[in-house]
Amino acid sequence: MSKSDFSQSLLASSGKPQTAADQIPIIARFAVSDRAKETLNLVEKFVEEECIPADTVFHSQIGEGQKRWTTYPPVIDHLKARARKLGLWNLFLPKNHFKEGAGFSNLEYGLMAEWLGKSRTASEATNCAAPDTGNMEVLAKYGNDAQKKEWLAPLLEGKIRSAFLMTEPDVASSDATNITLTMKRQGNEYILNGTKWWSSGAGDPRCKVYIVMGKSDPSNNDSYKQQSVILVAAGTPGVTVQRVLSVYGYDDAPHGHAQIKFENVRVPASNIVLGEGRGFEIIQGRLGPGRIHHAMRSIGAAERALEWMIARVNDTRKKTFGKPLSEHGVLLEWIAKSRLEIDAARLIVLNAAIKIDESNAKGALKEIAEAKVMVPQMALMVIDRAVQAYGGAGVCQDTPLANMWAQIRTLRIADGPDEVHLQQMGKNENKRHRDIVEKLKVQKEKADHLLNEHGVQQKSKL
Q1: For residue 76, what pLDDT is reported?
Q2: Stated pTM of the model
Q3: Residue 326: pLDDT above 80?
Q4: Segment (H or E) for 8
C-alpha cells in the first residue's frame, strides 16, 4: 500500500463529522493549502487514535532506577514508524525559510502542533519535539556543511536526539549577557569551563550533541558579541551530567533536565557555529520559533484539559447536593470561559505564525512575545479549572491534569520569563507616547474649534 493509499485509508476510517481542517479559524483559512488541510486531518487522527492511547504505554515502559536514563520506551519507535508511513515527519521547518522540512508554513504547522500538544508522545513520534526542533533550526540556518552532515542529518532522520545548554545556576540567566561558562581558544580547540542547568533532553540515552552557549570574548566592549555557540558531542571528556532536575516532582524521564559541569572540556574549533561572537544572534534566532512552538502545543494541552473537564461534569456518577455537576452554573461558566480563552489565545498564536511567515522571527518579536506570555497563562487557568472539577483526582496520577499543569507552568519561565517579555513589550509600546500626546492635543484643539464654530459650550462630563 502506498503512503497516499495508507493515509486515505486511515482518514476513511474516521466517523467524526467535523475534521481538524473544518475547525481552522476562518480568518486563517486563506493561508492554509489543501495539502496542509489533509495533513492536519491526518495529524488529528494520529494523535487522537494512536498517540494518546500510546501515552499510557510510554509511561509504563519507562525504566526504574538508573534504567530511567539508560533506556527509552520502545513504543516511541513504533509510533515513529507509523508517523513516517503517514508522511507526518519534520513538519516544523517552515518552507519559506528551510528546504529540509516537510514544506509547510509556520501557520500550517501551528495548526498541526496544537494537536501534537495533546499527547506526550506525538511530538517526538513526528520528530517535532523540543529541544530538537530548535536545535535543528539552528543547524539548518547557521551550521556549515560539515556540521549539518554530522549532526543535522541524523537529527532530521530521528536517529539521535540533542540538548540545548544556555541557562546557568549561579547567574540570572533571563539576561543572557550574564552567562559565565568560558570558551577559551587554544590552537585548534576551545576549552570550556562552567556549569549549565535545565539542559532539557540531556538525560536521554539517544542525546548525542549539546548546543552550548558560552562566553568567548568577555572583554568585548559590545556585551552582545561576547558570546559564542559551539557544538559539543555528548560524552566528551570533562563533561559530567551531575544530576537531573525535577519539575514539580516530575523527572520527565528519559528526556530529563540536566545540570551539566564542564571541566577543561576540549572541543574542536571547527564546532563553533556561524563564527565567534555570533552567539546572541544565533540564540535570538533559535528562541523565537521555540517560543511560538511552545505556545502552539499549549493550545492543544488546554483543549485536552477542557475535554477532561467536560467529561467530569457529565459523569452521571458524580452528584453534589442532589444535582449532577452539569446542572451547577459555576461549572458551566468555567466551560464557557475556557472556550472563550482558548479560542482567543489561538488567534494570538496564529497571528504570530502568519507574521513569521511574512517576514521572520525577528520581524515578529511583538507577536511572538504576546503569544509566549498569554498562552501559558491561559492554559494554566483552563487546566486549573479542570483540576478543581475533578477534586482529589485532579492532583494525582489518575488524570493527566497535574502533569500537564507542571509542564505548562515551566513555560512562564522557559525561553525568557514573562516579566522580560512584558518589560520589552511595555518599552516598545510606550515609544508611541509622543505621537499619542500630540494626537490627543490636536483632537482637543479641533474639538474646541468646532465648539466655537457651532456656537456651543462644552457640557460638563459629570
Answers
A1: 98
A2: 0.91
A3: yes
A4: helix 3-12
Phi and psi at 267, nearest 5°, equal -130, 135
Question: Domains in the chain, start-ordered, CATH in brackets?
Answer: 21-129 (1.10.540.10), 161-277 (2.40.110.10), 281-430 (1.20.140.10)
Judge whether residue 457 has pLDDT over 60.
Answer: yes
**Length of the chain, please?**
462
- Going from the C-alpha of 413 to that of each of 145, 167, 339, 420, 447, the distances in angstroms are 34, 11, 25, 10, 47
Give the amino acid at 220.
N
CA 13 to chain CA centroid, Å, is 31
For residues 102 and 89, is the Cβ–Cβ distance under 8 A? yes
Largest Cα–Cα distance in the chain? 87
Alpha carbon 154 to its chain centroid, in Å, reads 22
In this prediction, residues 45-67 reach a mean pLDDT of 97
Q: Find, among 287, 139, 123, 293, the residue nearest to 209 by Cα.
A: 139
The x, y and z cell numbers of residue 108, run together, are: 500550517
Do residues 44 and 111 touch, judged by C-beta distance below 8 A?
no
Q: Give the DSSP per-residue string, 341-374.
A: HHHHHHHHHHHHHHHHHHS-TGGGHHHHHHHHHH
| C-alpha dihedral, 17 to 19 to 21 to 26, nearest 10° | 40
The packing angle between helices 52-61 and 75-86, to 10°, is 150
CA–CA separation, 332 and 390 (whole Å): 14
Q: Do 92 and 138 contact (CB within 8 A), yes or no?
A: no
Q: How far apart are CA 38 and CA 108, in angstroms?
A: 11
232-243: per-residue pLDDT in tens?
999 999 999 999
Q: What is the pLDDT confidence band of residue 99, given thresholds at 50, 70 and 90? A: confident
Grid cell 458551566 in the structure block, residue: 332
Q: Express each pLDDT in 419-448 by its tens digit.
A: 999 999 999 999 999 999 999 999 999 999
Integer-rounded Cα Rg, in Å, for the chain is 25
Report DSSP state, residue 445: H
Torsion sign over Cα 316, 321, 322, 324: negative
Task: Identify the residue whose cell numbers are 540515552.
Answer: 205
Whether omega before 131 lies within 30 degrees of 0, making that bond cis, reads yes
Q: Measure the CA–CA gap between 352 and 370, rounded to whole angstroms.
A: 8
| Residue (of 97, 51, 95, 94) closest to 75 by Cα position | 51
DSSP 3-state of 210 = strand
